[in-house]
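Appendix B. Chain record.
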Amino acid sequence: MDTQSQVKTTAVKGTDTAREVRPMVKDIYKAAHEARENGKKVAYMMVASHYDEILRAMDIVPLPTENYAGLCAAKRDMDRFLLRAEADGYSQVLCSYARIGLGFDSLRKELGHIPEGSPDGGMPLPDMMIGSSAICDPRFKWYQATSRYLEAPTFSIDVVAPPPQADLNRVRDYYINYQKEQFQGLIEFCEKQTHTKMDKEKLWEAIRLGDKAWQLWYDIDRLRVAIPSPMPSQDHFSIMVAGHYYTGTQKAVDFYQKLYDEVKYKADNHIGVIKDEKYRILYGGGLPPWHTLWIFNYFESFGAVFAIENVYRGFDPVQVPSHVTDPVDFLAWRTWLRATAYHEKARQNSGNPTVEKLLGIIKDYAIDGVMFHACRSCRATTVGQTHIKTELGKYCDLPMMQLVSDMVDLRDYSEAQWKAQIGAFIDALEARTDQE
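Structure tokens predicted for this chain:
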């Protein structure tokens, strides 16, 4: 592992602010360890589950297990955890985020302490585990499996969205009421674990800070329509830490305000990521290859910049009706509005909300080509990806490519194959440019 940890995995960033993220990542795990020492509650949690503000309002320190898997991959210290989970019977096609987490917890139980040399000091034992059905099924079942290795109360929240064919006016109230019940159940669970009642004013404050940070993040992404690109996707995969892991905090707001100011300056002054931007690429889907993020700089060596992406994005701002005056009602409404943001466009055109979102991005950001990353162990972002690519091709004639590996498991990656595919993709971009 010592040799692997010295291998370059990260990409050269395009903004100074993105370089400030690494200490924020370290603070996630430092805060969790300090919380344990000081008697505060720590919770294993899932990203983008719409419940972050509830945890912040209850003064529960979030410990994002998926992020820890990505950290292990970036540090090239994932094999021992992956192999341990597989030795315990978990298939190699199971989500590799989950396998790293399960392997880590398994080793910690066997050793009686955090495995030596674990990135950023490892994860402390949680006081509770809060799963979610948002995005994929392992997020709902992972923590149940973790109970093999530790004893902690577990709660999984259901996050649902109607199919694009649904009559939104007809099903809206049902979905919102159901989502509210889910949030209320989580609050009751947290109250039981913390022996503290939810303070609605604290929840409103967390929501206010969360929405302000997400609005700034959205505004930053809108600045990225500028040509040349003022911020690339490799920066996005760093700066998303503030929005997804510090939701509901002033720290996230301050970070995005600083980033906004930097990106706006670059956009206003036509300062691009590289000197000669020839092609603008959309990262169309699939989790990022945390083990090989330097690949973005390889694209840049051909004059290709990833101008925008459609994964780990901030939610587009939504307008919750003014008559909603209860914070839990607000969370339920916001979740519904986020989930259905592209449904009406889809009904009028392609029938697929993801395709509609990508088409809008392609137009707004003057995209020249699209790259997808098929992750072998992530069904949620890979199953249907080829269909999305095909459907997208019906509405635009851009060159598209699909790289295959995994988000953290290096065994599914071939550098030679990737570089050959990228070369062919660049040739297609060049040929299309010549035709124009």
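Further analysis of this model is presented in Appendix C.
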